[in-house]
Write a structure and sequence with these properties.
Layout (H helix, E strand, L loop, with lengths): L4 E2 L6 E2 L4 E5 L4 E8 L4 E4 L9 E2 L2 E3 L5 E3 L6 H4 L4 E2 L10 H4 L9 E3 L8 E4 L2 E3 L1 H20 L5 E6 L5 H13 L3 E7 H8 L10 E8 L4 E9 L2 E10 L4 H13 L10 H17 L5 E8 L2 E8 H26 L8 E5 L6 H10 L4 E3 L7 H13 L7 E5 L4 E5 L3 E6 L4 E2 L1 E7 L8 E8 L9 E9 L11 E7 L5 E7 L5 E5 L8 H13 L1 H30 L6 H17 L5 H31 L7
Parallel strand pairs: 3-13, 13-14, 15-20, 17-22, 20-21
Antiparallel strand pairs: 1-2, 3-4, 4-5, 4-6, 7-8, 7-9, 10-11, 11-12, 15-16, 16-17, 18-19, 22-25, 23-24, 23-27, 26-29, 27-28, 29-30, 30-31
């Protein structure tokens, strides 16, 4: 039975099935839809005065929940009951936070394991998913107030560098808020859509999207051609943003307070808000001045634009380093980038604009749209595409780290390489290494190193019920299916019998930003040694297989061999076993060749006897 929507305001039928475009931000969030009359995206206010909803949640002592602007005063008055920057906690364990945990005024629980962090308010524990869902509910309510009807579908944006755990957490938060999340879209892609880049199908464009928000940063290099948006590369840091500008200012001011003066939690949060105000003021003025009472004494704080620029210079340099790595991965030259798009409220800073313009010196700088709104507006356009109203645009994103499985010797066998397009489906065929093997463990890893021990384990499952066959006979197809949201499904099938097992990879925690960066840098730094290590491991694995096969052959076919042949083979087997301790690929392979060369006639002799027995008593017609 079809559903009917009624506009609450007018009492008329609401024929349009709206799909929301949501920017779930670290500092601010907002919701937009495609305005059917104007064919343009617009941000929604609901009953509020502004389209922006601060990503703040306050829990009152009586259980009341306040979201958005109304929660702001409580950051100072009741910081232990007011949650901010929850996006920085998405898909994270306590260990992932490292030294950053003291930045939050509320209590983050350390359960000393790898589970998701929890936030404690009174006697209740909340996950980042639950907290994010409260912000999403507020955005959903706003949209329904302004549109005059119920809304149940949405497109939600995430930083391009969000990993699998963080994307899944975002999708779960949407579901908890009563939204069917049709697509998780990378923020840079949404921003490009908002600027109308690529809408001219005759124009080929290379675009760099520099997205510096409150708590996350990423840069993506896109190729836009014939209405196809293709992410060539992406790099970033899910723990870098305007909050770090504020933190640098706070630490600068703390240095001006006499030693021995300890700030309370409320005073620390008040100082953080003063730093945020100073940052915003310096986007238009050369000097910011403020004061704050600390421990009963009034302190005066000033900050010049020059001081601010000096404080944030190291943070800006980290973003430019990421730009350089993304450009290298895209295999484009700097002069091939046509446009640089600025996204995120932190790009209002003059120093940020100058830094980006200086790096992408051959490109046109796009900063005409409100940097706070641009991602939500692009998400609304993507929602319009999914609704079937735009058939001339296709979005292709990429996965930021390689995905693969563990093979013999603890090696990482990559199935979907880093920067592969998503959605994507890739399969590889494997087999067993032991006679009669009926189970196979499939361990899924993410990373760039040759050994799985150097990468991050995502999941593990066992393919059971493989028919007992000689080693090498079963054919096991392992398929990786990476969907449009960047979420991975793994399926293993024994092709001869049809035995099948699959899982959706939902890791309990994500990679820290330092680990992501370390993985990429280590893959370059250790490339030569990794290849040498892999070659040794592969040689050892081959040797162990040959030892296993040869020893079984001798045990079964002694009657075919002379005592001298058995003795000589045993000596060669011992030599090969001893060579494994050398960790020298060439020595191991040399002994493998010797053993193969000596035992080759044995197999030929067995084949001759088998043929002879098969033909016994039979005549061969000429």
């Amino acid at each position: 039975m079809p559903s009917i929507s009624i506009n609450i305001k007018s009492g008329t039928l609401q024929n349009k099935d709206y799909i929301l475009g949501i920017d779930l931000g670290t500092t601010n969030s907002l919701v937009a839809v495609m305005d059917g009359d104007q064919a343009e995206p617009k941000a929604l206010k609901g009953k509020g005065q502004h389209v922006i909803v601060p990503s703040l949640i306050h829990f009152g002592p009586e259980g009341q929940v306040i979201v958005g602007e109304a929660a702001k005063p409580f950051i100072v008055d009741h910081p232990e009951r007011t949650v901010y920057s929850v996006k920085r906690l998405m898909g994270k364990s306590y260990g992932d936070l490292g030294s950053h945990s003291d930045y939050f005024g509320y209590k983050i629980i350390d359960e000393q394991d790898d589970s998701l962090v929890k936030i404690k308010i009174d006697d209740r524990f909340y996950t980042p998913i639950e907290l994010s869902s409260l912000i999403l509910k507020e955005l959903k309510n706003r949209a329904e107030q302004e549109l005059g009807g119920s809304v149940s579908k949405a497109v939600i944006t995430v930083p391009a560098y969000f990993n699998d755990a963080q994307r899944q957490a975002t999708r779960d938060a949407g579901k908890l808020a009563g939204l069917e999340v049709l697509r998780i879209v990378n923020e840079p892609t949404a921003a490009s859509l908002a600027y109308g880049l690529g809408l001219d199908r005759e124009q080929d464009h290379h675009v760099a999207v520099y997205d510096l928000g409150g708590g996350t940063f990423d840069v993506s290099i896109l190729r836009i051609s014939n209405g196809i948006f293709e992410v060539l590369s992406t790099h970033g840091d899910t723990y870098l943003g305007g909050d770090d500008f504020d933190r640098a200012v706070v630490e600068h001011w703390l240095g001006q307070i006499p030693q021995g003066v300890e700030l309370s939690n409320s005073e620390t949060q008040a100082l953080r808000l003063k730093a945020e105000e100073a940052k915003k003021a310096l986007s238009k003025a050369d000097l910011s001045e403020s004061s704050l009472e600390i421990q009963g004494q009034q302190y005066h704080f000033s900050l010049s634009k020059a001081e601010f620029n000096q404080l944030i210079a190291p943070i800006l340099q980290r973003t430019l380093d990421a730009c350089a790595r993304a450009l290298k991965d895209s295999e484009l030259k700097l002069e091939e980038i046509d446009s640089a798009v600025l996204v995120g409220g932190s790009t209002r800073s003059e120093a940020v604009k100058e830094a980006v313009a200086g790096f992408f010196k051959h490109s046109e700088l796009n900063d005409s749209l409100n940097p706070d709104e641009v991602v939500a507006l692009g998400a609304a356009i993507e929602a319009d595409i999914l609704a079937g109203n735009r058939k001339d645009i296709l979005l292709l994103d990429v996965t930021p780290l390689s995905l693969g499985i563990e093979t013999l010797g603890g090696l990482m066998d990559t199935i979907i390489p880093r920067n592969s397009k998503v959605p994507n489906r890739v399969g590889k065929e494997y087999t067993t290494s032991v006679d009669g093997q009926v189970n196979m463990k499939i361990s899924v890893y993410q990373g760039e190193r040759e050994l799985v021990s150097e990468n991050r384990k995502l999941a593990e499952f066992t393919l059971q019920g493989i028919p007992a066959m000689p080693a090498g006979m079963p054919k096991i197809q392992v398929n990786f299916m990476l969907n449009a949201d960047g979420i991975l499904q793994v399926q293993a099938t024994e092709l001869r019998s049809g035995v099948k097992q699959h899982i959706e990879v939902k890791p309990q925690y994500g990679l820290t930003d330092e680990e992501v960066e370390r993985m990429l840098l280590d893959s370059i730094t250790h490339a030569e040694s990794d290849v040498k290590t892999r070659m040794v491991v592969e040689a050892k694995t081959e040797a162990e297989q040959i030892l296993y096969v040869t020893e079984r052959f001798i045990a079964k076919n002694k009657n075919l061999l002379s005592d001298q042949e058995i003795q000589s083979t045993s000596l060669l087997l011992n030599d090969l076993k001893n060579s494994l301790e050398s960790n020298d690929k060439d020595i191991i392979l040399g002994h493998i060749d010797e053993l193969n060369e000596y035992t080759r006639p044995f197999a030929e002799r067995l084949m001759d006897r088998s043929v002879s027995e098969a033909l016994k008593g039979k005549s061969i017609d000429s």
